[in-house]
């Protein structure tokens, strides 16, 4: 892929997506969002890629928000479209991706950066990470899912505090509130994410995709998550992975999932 602001690397069956605008603290502009969509789409379509890790270049920032200069003169219609398209091609897209996505949060994850991390299926942070949604200090609200995903992860009260105060929390606070799963020194961040990715990749990609769909259904309005779980549980019985997994268990060997 010939991308300007995003790097894509393959490490065995792990895809690593890196936002690469270090001079802008990896801030998201329209071009970067478009390129991230393309990177995730291509990796998701590659059957050899079992897990995707998303991170930021350098040691200072995962993604330190959106590129404010790009939309500071927008009107109501343009602002609405900015949010709608962002949800469609990146944030909701990542959340519903069939391939599991781990966010390796290295440094600042603010505004759209935290929203990207929250769209991932789970998060690991470096000890120097700082996270927050500072949008109200600019006279706007989080527009890429922050008002929805943050309460789901940390609870309504803490989310309200973070959004209304526009303040940042530390990596350890983020772990305490369930926003991230692990906190490690920066040098250990990608190695831990790769270790977790390798463990995930040993399991059935078909089953993992179905599990993502079922878990996400619980957070989707007017959708009965239990019904989605029942449906996908049943569908699992018709897959080659189910046959291989159960046969391997009965034969007391490790399964060989394609």
Question: How would you explain this protein's 3D organization?
Answer:
The chain folds into two domains: 6-201, Alpha-Beta Complex (2-enoyl-CoA Hydratase, Chain A, domain 1), CATH 3.90.226; 205-250. Helices cover 47% and strands 17% of the residues. The protein contains ten helices and ten strands. Helix 1 links the parallel strand 2 and strand 3. Helix 2 runs parallel beside helix 3 (112-119) and helix 3 (112-119) crosses helix 4. It is globular and about 60 Å long. The mean pLDDT is 96.
Condensed summary:
The protein has 258 residues and is α/β, with parallel strands linked by helices. It is built from ten helices and ten strands.
Mean pLDDT: 96
- Share of helix among residues? 40-55%
CATH architecture of the largest domain: Alpha-Beta Complex
CATH topology of the largest domain: 2-enoyl-CoA Hydratase, Chain A, domain 1
N-to-C span = 25 Å
**Backbone CA Rg:** 19 Å
Proportion of residues in extended strands: 15-25%
Main sheet: strand order: 1-2-3-5-7-10
User: What is the H-and-E element order?
Assistant: EEHEEHEEHEEHHEHEHHHH
Number of domains: 2
